[in-house]
């Protein structure tokens, strides 16, 4: 007897990519029913909710009711996209450069509202599963989950794929597009000699010895095969050249490949392939469906409990479950547990660490959870959210020094590489670092505050916000004397006075004997003096449940947990690449370990 559940209609999976507004885009009329309709889209900060008014069958107005996007950075999209849609009577409008994610979220929300206005639904109640029983459950439809679901179905399994958002892609919708493998076709085309042994040697050199050797060896051995598969299905590598990582430490040979269109291009291609399997009845994709628990029987994972958008709970059983739930970068509880006392996050709002909760419930042991990239300079404004909404200029601000709560300098503030710079924020007491400067340095009028990458806030707006924050006294502080500044900011007063006195001596002598700073070695003059409080912010998380080379999650006794597999960010990049950030590793983990998890899960599920 077939189970009943909610099945996303195949035809509507295709329609939703463009929305029911497509008739307008093609110059045809659409039969919208007059009224006000609500729609939701997924931005990087969470849901974007809009209301769309239809009058005489046409879009009359669009109001953005709520959102959690970054102030300033998202403003151009929030102000312009509704106007463009209204003018064109279609969501087929260009996204705003620099605010693409927010633009897409608004367009998605409007499209969903228009679907309702046409009387269409994205889901059908009580639809029948196209198969008698699921073999494999995949939790999360990001890059790793899409790879796993597609591979499992290709190997003959009946698959249910769960996604809590209204579209597939997860973090892949926002990620860059680098891959790294040893012996790829692109390397051969460019006459670059590489091997798994050379790649492993790079991991040994860069990874600081904390990776898991068997996982690292397996990864480098099959990395080229995984990347070449992307090549074979038509994912474009652009100019088909090889690069060294732009930010991270260099490989010993050219190895990094760039995906044209970034990770989103991978998502689009995998979604296209998966839609074929959905039409063939091999895969059921449940959007807007959040897995909230796993089902255990005799310490084996035999299913999951999922909640649909109406709040209905349904238990799904299968012999194998693959967790592809991403990291815990937006879960302050997990971050405090393993990493930072104070921090902010750039991770998407849905990166809540659910897979870590499920693995922990199943008895998993965790590995390298303490390793996590900590980018410097988030300003912890008191806005009630964990997301990073403002950053301070930590890149060569003229004359400034960095001190911790103890009033001590920690590094050459001007000429420091990314890794030691990150370490300063990670190791500072309470993870708090102050950027300290005097009035003359302030008068240089260089950017000090922004909303994020590229100083999206104008310089003038940044200084207006700077003065506003001084008046609040939470994150920007002022004092007519060094002592007063220290008291206002909560920095050790005597130590800060001594630190600046010592630093001024270095500036006068032209030699920093503590940290070797030579650039912008400018003495502090008369007050007033200023301090900007900053904390680290994170994107990827790097630890994860311990697994073997079959992507089986390992319990505390060192044995595989029956029926439980993992892939993607949940794997933990540090378990494969060590403490360093290795160019192209994260995206390659998604395809390689997505396939490994699928093969292992299918082999087990079909043997039962």
How would you describe the overall organization of this protein?
Among the domains are: 21-117, Sufe protein. Chain: A (Alpha-Beta Complex); 375-538, Flavocytochrome C3, Chain A, domain 1 (Alpha-Beta Complex), CATH 3.90.700. The chain is an alpha+beta fold and 608 residues long. The model is unreliable at 1-29 and 121-127 (pLDDT under 50). 53% of the residues are buried. The strands form eight sheets. It has a six-stranded mixed β-sheet. Strands 15, 17, 19, 20, 22 and 23 form a six-stranded mixed β-sheet that branches. Helices cover 34% and strands 21% of the residues.
The overall average pLDDT, rounded, is 90
Quick one: CATH class of the domain at 375-538? Answer: Alpha Beta
Strand content: 15-25%
Helix content: 25-40%
Tell the overall outline.
Answer: globular
Distance between the termini: 19 Å
Let me know the largest β-sheet: 6 strands, mixed
Tally of alpha and pi helices:
18
Which architecture name of the domain at 375-538 does CATH use?
Answer: Alpha-Beta Complex
Q: In CATH terms, what is the fold-level topology of the domain at 375-538?
A: Flavocytochrome C3, Chain A, domain 1
- Secondary structure: number of strands: 26
Residue stretches low in confidence (pLDDT < 50, at least 5 long) are 1-29, 121-127
Gyration radius, rounded: 26 Å
List the helices and strands and how they pair.
Elements: E1 4-7, H1 10-18, H2 22-25, E2 35-43, E3 46-55, E4 58-66, H3 75-88, H4 100-117, E5 124-128, E6 136-139, H5 143-154, E7 159-162, E8 178-180, H6 185-189, H7 196-206, H8 213-232, E9 256-258, H9 262-279, E10 283-286, E11 290-297, E12 300-307, E13 313-317, E14 320-323, H10 332-338, E15 344-345, H11 354-361, E16 366-367, E17 375-378, E18 391-392, E19 401-404, H12 418-427, E20 433-438, H13 439-442, E21 449-450, H14 459-472, E22 476-479, H15 482-489, H16 493-509, E23 529-538, E24 544-545, E25 552-554, E26 560-566, H17 573-577, H18 585-607
Parallel strand pairs: 6-7, 6-14, 7-10, 14-26, 15-23
Antiparallel strand pairs: 1-5, 2-3, 3-4, 8-9, 11-12, 12-13, 16-24, 17-23, 18-21, 19-20, 20-23, 22-23, 25-26
Helix pairs in contact: 3-4, 5-9, 5-18, 7-8, 8-18, 15-16
């Amino acid at each position: 007897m077939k189970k009943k559940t909610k099945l996303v209609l195949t035809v509507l999976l295709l329609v939703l990519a463009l929305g029911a507004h497509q008739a307008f885009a093609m110059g045809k009329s659409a039969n919208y029913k007059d009224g006000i309709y609500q729609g939701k889209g997924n931005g990087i900060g969470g849901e974007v909710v809009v209301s769309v008014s239809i009058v005489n069958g046409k879009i009359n107005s669009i109001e953005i009711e709520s959102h959690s996007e970054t102030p300033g950075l998202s403003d151009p999209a929030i102000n312009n996209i509704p106007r463009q849609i209204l003018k064109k009577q279609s969501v087929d409008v260009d996204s705003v450069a620099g605010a693409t994610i927010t633009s897409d979220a608004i367009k998605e929300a409007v499209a969903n509202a228009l679907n309702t206005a046409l009387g269409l639904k994205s889901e059908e109640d009580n639809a029948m599963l196209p198969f008698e029983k699921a073999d494999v459950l995949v939790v999360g439809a990001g890059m790793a989950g899409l790879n796993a679901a597609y591979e499992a179905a290709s190997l003959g399994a009946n698959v249910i794929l769960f996604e809590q958002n209204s579209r597939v892609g997860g973090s892949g919708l926002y990620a860059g597009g680098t891959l790294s493998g040893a012996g790829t076709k692109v390397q051969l085309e460019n006459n670059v000699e590489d091997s798994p042994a050379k790649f492993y040697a790079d991991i040994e050199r860069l990874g600081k010895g904390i990776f898991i050797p068997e996982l690292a060896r397996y990864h480098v051995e099959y990395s080229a095969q995984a990347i070449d598969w992307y090549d074979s299905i038509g994912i474009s590598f652009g100019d088909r050249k090889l690069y060294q990582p732009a930010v991270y430490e260099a490989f010993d040979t050219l190895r990094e490949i760039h995906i044209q269109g970034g990770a989103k291009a991978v998502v689009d291609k995998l979604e296209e392939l998966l839609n074929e399997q959905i039409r063939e009845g091999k895969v059921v994709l449940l959007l807007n469906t959040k897995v909230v628990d796993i089902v255990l029987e005799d310490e084996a994972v035999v299913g999951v409990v999922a909640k649909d958008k109406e709040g209905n709970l349904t238990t799904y059983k299968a012999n194998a479950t693959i967790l592809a739930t991403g990291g815990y970068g937006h879960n302050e509880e997990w971050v405090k547990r393993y990493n930072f006392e104070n921090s902010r996050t750039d991770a998407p709002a849905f990166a809540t660490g659910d897979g870590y909760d499920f693995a922990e419930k199943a008895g998993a042991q965790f590995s390298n959870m303490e390793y996590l990239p900590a980018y410097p300079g988030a300003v912890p404004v008191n806005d009630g959210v964990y997301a990073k909404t403002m950053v301070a200029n930590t890149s060569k601000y003229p004359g400034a020094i960095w001190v911790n709560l103890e009033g001590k300098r920690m590094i050459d503030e001007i000429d420091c590489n990314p890794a030691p710079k990150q370490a300063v924020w990670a190791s500072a007491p309470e993870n708090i670092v102050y950027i300290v400067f005097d009035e003359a340095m302030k008068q240089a009028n260089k950017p000090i505050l922004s909303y994020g990458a590229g100083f999206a806030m104008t310089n003038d707006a940044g200084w207006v916000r700077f003065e506003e924050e001084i008046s609040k006294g939470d994150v920007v502080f002022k004092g007519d004397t060094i002592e007063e500044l220290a008291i206002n900011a909560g920095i050790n007063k005597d130590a800060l006075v001594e630190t600046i006195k010592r630093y001024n001596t270095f500036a006068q002598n032209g030699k920093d004997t503590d940290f070797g700073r030579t650039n912008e070695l400018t003495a502090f003059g008369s007050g007033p003096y200023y301090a900007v409080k900053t904390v680290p912010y994170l994107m990827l998380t790097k630890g994860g449940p311990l697994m073997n080379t079959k992507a089986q999650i390992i319990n505390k006794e060192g044995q595989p947990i029956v029926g439980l597999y993992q892939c993607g960010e949940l794997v933990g990049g540090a378990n494969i690449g060590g403490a360093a950030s290795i160019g192209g590793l994260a995206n390659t983990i998604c395809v390689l370990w997505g396939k490994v998890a699928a093969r292992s899960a299918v082999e087990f599920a079909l043997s039962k």
